[in-house]
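Why this split exists: single-chain examples teach little about how molecules sit against one another. For that reason, every record in the complexes split bundles all components of an assembly together and asks for one structure covering all of them. Below is a record exactly as it appears in the raw files.
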Amino acid sequence: MNGRGLIHYALALLLAPLLLGVINRVKAAFAGRRGQPVLQPYYDLVKLLQKGAVYSRTTTWVFRAGPVVTLAALLAALALVPFAGQAGPLSFQGDVIVCVYLLGLARFFTVLAALDTGSAFEGMGASREVQFSALAEPALLVGLVVLGRQTSTASLGPMFAAVGPALWMTAGTTLALLAVAFFIVLLSENSRVPFDDPNTHLELTMIHEVMVLDHGGPDFGLILYGSALKLWIFSAFVAGLVVPYRCGNGWVDTAAAVGALLLTALVVGTVESCMARLRLLRVPHLLISATVAAVLAFLLMTR
Amino acid sequence: MTSWLDIVMVLLFLTDLGLLGSSRLGVYVRLAAVQGVLVGVLPLLVQHTLALETVAVAAGTIAVKSVLFPWLMARIMRGFDDRRERQPYLGYTVSLVLGVLAVGAALWISRRLPESGAGGLAAHGFLMPAALFSIFTGLILLVTRRKAVTQVLGYLVMENGIYVAGMVLVPESTFLVELGVLLDLFVGVFLMGIMIFHIQREFDHIDTDQLAALKDWGGEP
Amino acid sequence: MLRELVMLPAGAGLMAFFVRSHGWRRGLLVAAAVAHLGLTVRAWVAPPAVGGFWLGLDPLGLLFLTIVSVLFMACAVYAVGYLGREDHQQEKADLEEGLLFSNQPEAVFTGCMLLFLSMMSLVCLSRHLGLLWVAIEATTLTSAPLIYYHRHHRSLEAAWKYMLICSVGIGLALLGNFFLAVAFTPAGGVTPALGLDGLLTATVGTRGVWLKVAFVFIVVGYGTKMGLAPMHTWLPDAHSESPSVVSALLSGALLNCAFLGILRVWQVLVHTGQADFAQPIMIGFGLASMAVAAVFILGQPDYKRLLAYSSVEHMGILALGVGLGGAAVFGSLLHAVNHSLTKCMLFLTAGNILAVYRTKECGKARGLLRVMPVTGVLWIAGFLAITGTPPFGVFLSKFIVLSAAFNSGHPVIGVVALALLAVIFVGLCVIVLRMGQGERSDAVPEAVREPLWSMIPPVLLGLAVLALGLWLPKPLETVLQAAARSLGGGL
Amino acid sequence: MSGLLVSLILLLTASALPLAAWRRPALASRLGSWGGAAACGVGLASSIAAFAGSVTASRAWPWVTPVGGAFSLALDPLSAFFLIPMFLVCGLGAVYGRAYLAGDEGRLALGPSWCFYNLLTASMIVVLTASNALLFLVSWEVMTLASFFLVTYDHDRAESRLAGRLYLIAAHIGTAFLVVFVLLGRRYTGTLDMSQWPAAFAGIPAARLGLLFVCLVIGFGTKAGFMPLHVWLPEAHPAAPSHVSAVMSGVMIKTGIYGLLRFGTMLGTPALWWGGLLVAVGLASCVFGILFALAQQDIKRQLAYSSVENMGIVALALGVALVARALQLPTVALLALAAALLHVLNHAVFKSLLFFGAGAIYRATHTRNLDALGGLLKRMPRLGLGLIVGAAAISALPPFNGFVGEFLLYRAAVLGLNSDADAGMILLAAIGGLALTGGLAAACFTRLVGVALLGEPRTPEAAAAVEPAGAFRWPVTILAALCLALGVLGPFLVVRLAPLLSLLSGDPLAKVSGLLAPETGPLTAVTLMALLVLALVVIVAWARHGLLRGRDVREAGTWDCGYARPTARMQYTATSFAQPLVGLFVRLLRSRRRYAIAPGLFPASASLNAETRDVVRERVFTPVFQFVDRWLSFLKWLQSGRVQLYILYIVITLLGLLFWTLRGGA
């Protein structure tokens, strides 16, 4: 537990929805529109939290527990994530594994809640979610473990603290490959193009959004906030690896890191505007290639 | 004495070859009877002293081997329409060739056995091969012929060979040899004779082809 | 006492030919069996001196005599029930082809059974190789009518093959005995009598080759009767066509008697230091028998033939054990005991199945556990016992034999044997379990009685095999040890 | 030790009594169940005490001594550790079984079933404590036989018969390898007394040790269900009554792991390839096991394949431990061993939970087909809660127990990866494979819970289901509580494993404790994280509750994008849920699909049937067996029925032997 980590944690809780807003603005800009305000996700959250709720008669307590457990698991995972080269509020040897499995816990309950509605749409989304995440999980974990091997640790904090210009000079290829892997996993896990299209709520092509069709009111607010946190976590991995800016002054570093996160959101938005969704059948190939990139990084390192 | 023995042995060889090369059941029985006589006189030639016991053994053997069994066989065959051994598994020529090979094998085996040393008989280099050859002839008949009667005759020939071997190898215990061979013959030929009666009753003929229902190969029995 | 063991059943057997009443005759059968067993037990309690020139009882003989006696007891009890079921007067339809046939007269059956017992006892008691040969020959003579009990053409064929093949074998064994005599004849001297005690003190000198050739002839000759592959060919036919109670005796007792014939010569070989030469022969016969059994057990459609091939397998294990020497000889002898008890139990159970299902086809005798629970349990337990599954006795004896294979530096032989055993297990497993388990078949009458006479012997035999797997009685161990030591082995 | 003996005697009595009372099934059932449960209670208490006190004790009675046998039992931490879950699951199974079997009373024989159940438990006690190799083999086979008879308990069903046969054959072949091992062991050491083996194995060349190790992996791997030796498992476990499935899957297959540990540690320092072999076997088992589980519709088959997966994880952990020992990385080896041990314990808890639950569902709905279930959580809420906990635990999610074992394994692999490059690829493969397995397991068990418990019932039978009786529910509840307790407290258990780890690694206790000391930090952190997650759940739930208080909360039909007439049959089924993943691996799984599409412009009905059979069985074992069968059948011409040929065999044998004997010359 450390003070800077706690501040970063609070920052994440506060700024996470902003990333969604940035992505939306970038997409609007590419489409030549003004687009919604950058703070729109905050407005949405506030609105949703003020509403009542409608539940399907089919559902059980699992449906109501889904958003709660998901958010709780993401909040716990966020506590392990390093930011600005600084360990998260909680850090210990092996927290890599706990972090990845907490994300798994979140997914487990999202999927169960979706299946609880008995709707075919949500079943379909759940089915795709488990497929893609089963393939994304090895990519993420192998990637993190390889990074840990490069930096001789099994804890996220020291791992990202050790990444810096010096390491990029000596093991640039390895880090680049890992960055690619992390970015692919980011896109997949956060349901962005080319894996998913968050804009097309009502089409058969989507994954994550379709799972939460039946949620409304505060529950949906929790889900929305949860996905913002998730995006923050993955962006922190990518940004921590690619933009390891340190000047020594903690506050400047933190500001730079927030900037790097926003930059990541910008890239995600750009990718989303420039690319089409992949055919569902092609998606596994991309995820497997992320794992391959991570393994390749390992081979390069131990060469 | 030795020359007599030689003659008997040569005759034994010839009867064996005759059995291998012939196809008529009648010839088989007659040749077997002749062999019985040849084998029967053997104790008289082998023993140095002509005891009464030896004579009795010789007489008994001849009575059983060349009178009783041929008669039994002949009786059995009286009911047959076909008195030939048709289509044996191997032709008569091949049987003869096999016979020649058997002579070779008999010589090879006896060559490799050290002297038996009993009564100096084994010094007579011809006795052991002749005995083995008779045994092999009997086995060849058993393996290649189709009719049950022929097979029993083959068995008889084999027993003759064993008897000769016994005479050669353990001349002192003639009685044991006698007992053994006669018991064997009794069991074999007598019981088989009874069985051939039954076989005839059950199947109308005595080709052992008919006796191939119990098997684990080919169609259902 | 030794003479009584032979004469008593022989006398009873001759008497049985003349007794008119079925009841008295069956009583005579059981009484003779009881008396014989009583004499055998007495031999355990108060062992007679090893014996004279012709007859004697050493541990090896005692062991096999006990097997014969116990098995005969079980079969005699079973036969009472069996003969009660069989009708001897009328012709009846053959089970498989519907041909009409009639049984042998019951007097012939009972008489031959008793004479058969007498001759097997003689085999166990003989101390003279000539007498031994005569006794083995006589077992063929007395058992052939038993095989031909159901007088139809298949049992005739089986009896014919049995007679012809075994006679050839026994003839070769006689020749072997002659050679053996030559081996022990001193140069220019007199041929010795073939008394075992004499042979075990004599020397061969330069005549080792004669002894070797003698052994080859005897092992092929007696091996034919024992059912060693590839001379085993009569065995499945005879076992499948004779009444089950006869099959039980043939498989459990007769094969052992032939084995004893080989063992007697083995004793001589061991004494003269020639056993090394014969070991590969016995191992070869052992593995060949197991392999042949494996081939024919897989997918065997007839359950009595199945049991017959299983006997071939176990004779192979016995030969293997003797061939390996050392501790394996002990294992082999123990295995003879276990196998006899188990196989007898299985054949008697098979007889019960045949009586109800009226077919020998495995495919038609289904659902035993549902139709006849006791028989079903016996059948499956028998399968487990015969394949050497713990905790049955066969496991221990197999274990000793295999263990000796590994210990004596023949691990490859051990592995090959284990592989063959596994194949045999698979074959038996599929067939036996298909028969044992499942729904009751429609072809079977609704209410099936399981008569007590037919149940008690196999149940007791099964319990005995189980007991032998859990506990090795000290007296048995002592006798086995002594017998194995006389064969140059032992633990 | 005396507690164990009491338990053993009680069990033997409780297996004899039901058989004696076979004419009165209710009485037999009561005797068997109570006797079994009481014996397990005694055994559980005594083995927990023995483990906690690191007791080592032994007793021996003479038994078939000329053969080398002895009825000698020895209790040490390793035995005690395996005995604890064994007694727990068997005891709960005895209670559960009585309720479960009550449904068959009058149709099937309950007396024998209870006899074999208690015999199975008794034989497992002996297997886990035997210190004589012959006694071990005998009890091992008795265990196989007892479970075989339990599998074929309902042998009127062809499926049970087939499963039983397959099981018996596989077990027998596996045991053959163990026999080879024991016989080789006896050859090298000259004794069957296992306590003398470790010292005697020391001087044996490495190649022979490797041979012994392979025998062990095949022999015990068959029982443990390692791929590709697992073929019997997905058939036998579903065919058995559910309490037996729980015992077989939960604890019986662990005896394979026990055997590997018990005998494997005797072989001394391993070669690197031993670990590589186990890692390969483990990876194949876990990835393929879980993929096959995913493709099954039968709920118990799915659980059985999942057992293959979990045994694969244990094999993986053992493999990592061996690799680490070969590379002289003691900490890594210890952690991996601890992971294997913990996973054994954890799997016993959650797998028996799931089988108990599946059995209760089967009894309530009369079907094991996932696609015929649905909406059961509403109808059996308490059982459903237990099942969801079990599903989360088996998917290795924090804060449940499954995670602790996997965490340790990852920890070991990462530590090994960071400290040595030689075996880097092996360890990285282990990590990647484990991660993939984790993802697939999540898919598999969300499918199980989602399709069976959630949504609407798909059939009238499922709709008519009601909460089962207490005897069905309580074992599930107890095990679910254990899942959570072990998940939170599991890390502390690792410290208690030190004496056992010292026994297995051969290092002194002080050294083991010293090596484990740095790991207590992360382990405590895992517990803290588990507690944090629980606290956060409570906080968020409380916040949500506060937000909704007093607001308008309504119930309606599922929205389903505004579709007007949702019916239960429109739900995603288990088959469709798994389709993307199964489709992705279709080349490996060889799933078969049968379509039946009605012709015409307005087709009335259509059907699709997807089925995934065991690839290893169909593509490897069946062809091999058929080949052997065909090849051997070819030799049947030997018995052609012609007596002439038979005599010819005699002649050939005679001449051959004569030639062989006389070949040297006179």
